[in-house]
Amino acid sequence: MNDFFGWFPSTTFENNTCIFASNFANTCVFVTRDGLVIFDVPLRQFGQKTFDEVRKITEKPVKYIIFSHGHFDHAFGYEPFLEEIKQKDWDMPEVIAHENCLRRFEKYEMLDKYHDWINKQQFSSVSREDRDRVVSAHETLNPTIMLEGNHASYSFKLGEVNFKIYHDIGETDDSLWLWVPEKKTICTGDLMISSFPNVGNPFKVQRYPNDWALAMEKMREKNAEYLAPGHGRLIIGKENVREALTITAEAMHFVHDEVVKRLNEGKWFEQIYHEMLAIYPEKFKKHKILRESYGSYRFAIHAVYRLYHGWYDSGNPTDLFPAKTGDVARELLKISNESKYLERAKILFSEGKLQLALHILDVIIKGTDDQNIEILTEVLELKQKILKQKAKEEQTFIASNILENGASQIEKKLEKLRKPI
Ligand SMILES: [Zn+2]
Questions:
Q1: Cα of 200 to ligand 1 centre, how many Å?
Q2: Which residues surround ligand 1, an ion (CB under 5 A)?
Q3: Rounded to the nearest 5 degrees, what angle is found at the Cα of 413, between the Cα atoms of 411 and 416?
Q4: Is the pLDDT confidence value at 233 over 70?
Q5: pTM (2 d.p.)
Q6: pLDDT digits (tens, 9 = 90+) for 63-82
Q7: Which pick of 15, 140, 260, 302 has the fewest CB atoms within 10 Å?
């Protein structure tokens, strides 16, 4: 995860005319004769650090700020740059984004508290201090130049350098990527993140795997020497850039096409999901660009299914208007009691069938009486142990956080149960 989080020193390339500053997400700055073009600003709390790193290299004024997309880690750490512009009485820079970025900022205002709640779960392993420095969705730097519609593009020249911006959907519907021919550099935003792409994130809205692959293929045509990803280290060398783009495009095509094939065969989600796990090619599994440090192939299967299918995903009419899971569990416990379920869960645990053990333990947790303190404590302790074990084995930051969160929630319940009455 060190690479994903940008825990490595910022660098320059092309004779100090390009600055690659890594503070959680990456900022790429191009130094031209007539000023600076900044591609992405970091999280608000890292704005000053990135600013200081840029100002160690160049004193030139900022002329353009481009947002790869409107996520908090790419479009909110702009304050130190604007502060300097005011102090030095420079002209305000142009701010370039896709029109959907502005819609995103509006959505952030509407769902401010919800996003705070959801991000505290997704990023729960990030230090509490950093997590609590909440970004206000009400303070945004709005675009002055907006790309409109699908596959839009925009070009401009500053000093001796040309900048070509393209819109392709992928992680978000407001993604922009940048091609700078004189610097042989592509800036991808989160279309590349030094992990399996963040497609099918369990907490977040729909992403677009097929269009993602197409964007990678368009980027490949540029034959770039440098690829500045949204997270992770700068990729250097034509072959390395080509390889990273090719394998990511192939993986996105694979997950998309294989799920689509199964949808056309009239299969429901569970069958598709487990078949997809069984056919995941070794070459993707082992490729370092596709390691599951953040996104995951397993999440991507959901993304494709959700893109083309509604929420009724089991094909079982029982699931159309389901009863409360607690009521179902109570009925199951009338058929066979808590001790028998626990006994079975322990056997499954000892056989390493952790996921099945969790399902069985949940029957007791949801269905038993709160007064069954002794058995409930034992059941919760076993579930907590399994969640911690799964979290440890899990590569994906998002999944391990969900599992760890579950274990901490259980700790709170256990503390209550252990309190003498
Ligand atoms: Zn990001």
A1: 15
A2: 25, 73, 190, 230
A3: 110
A4: yes
A5: 0.93
A6: 999 999 999 999 999 999 99
A7: 15
